[in-house]
Amino acid sequence: MGHVLSINSSAALNGSKTRAGVAAVVQALNPSRVTDRDLNDSLPHITGAWAAARLVPAADRTADDHAILAQSDALVAELQAADTIVIGAPLYNFSVPASLKAWVDLIARPKLTFQYTENGPQGLLTGKRAIVVMASGGVPIDSPVDFATPWLRQVLGFIGITDVTVIDTKDPAHLEQIAALAPATAA
């Protein structure tokens, strides 16, 4: 197995079902390389200056533009380098944590992760797989009031990642689902 980008967004550092699930998925995948990204390490929210800088062609960016986009560029590079993205996403108030939304805002970059064509938007991160580990204290995953899961599928598809597996930590079979992710061994 290749390179995994492991993303945790739970505010709970101990006892988090999504953090435990992400760790179990990464272990099952047994990748040759793992990049860990903990979104609790405080990502900036986008600003007007950021929104303007991202539209400036790379060759025309000022030093200030490059500084403004540095964190976003690093996050995009992590995504581009990974074969599989494993995302831990607890449901907070029917949606994703603000830190995960900030990450999405920073990686949704025209001409880097998506482009507009005459046929509409086209994702540029094709050929990748995403495994999303979901946890909820009360809202059933994929229910009409779960706005996180369909949003994550939409966002990932928008940037070109259409092979998305969702693991619900409340599902009694979720451990078997994780175990099934392990690569087959040669006999």
Can you give a write-up of this model?
The chain has six helices and seven strands. It has 187 residues and is α/β, with parallel strands linked by helices. Strands 2-1-3-6-7 form a five-stranded parallel β-sheet, with helices on both faces. A two-stranded antiparallel sheet has the order 4-5.
What's the SSE blueprint?
Blueprint: E1 3-8, H1 17-29, E2 33-38, H2 48-53, H3 63-81, E3 84-90, H4 98-107, E4 114-117, E5 120-123, E6 129-135, H5 148-158, E7 163-168, H6 174-179
Parallel strand pairs: 1-2, 1-3, 3-6, 6-7
Antiparallel strand pairs: 4-5
Observed structural traits:
187 residues; five-stranded parallel beta sheet; alpha/beta; Rossmann fold; 6 helices
Q: In total, how many beta strands?
A: 7
Please write the string of helix (H) and strand (E) elements.
Answer: EHEHHEHEEEHEH
Q: Largest sheet, if any? A: 5 strands, parallel
Strand content: 15-25%
Q: What is the CATH homologous superfamily assignment?
A: Flavodoxin domain
Count of alpha and pi helical runs: 6
Largest sheet: spatial strand order: 2-1-3-6-7
CATH class: Alpha Beta
- Gross morphology is globular
Amino-to-carboxy terminus distance:
17 Å
CATH topology heading: Rossmann fold
Low-pLDDT sequence parts: none
- The SS-based structural class is alpha/beta
Rg (C-alpha, Å): 17 Å
What is the average per-residue confidence, as pLDDT, rounded to a whole number?
94
CATH architecture: 3-Layer(aba) Sandwich
**Oligomeric form of this entry?**
single chain
Q: How many domain units?
A: 1
Fraction of helical residues = 25-40%
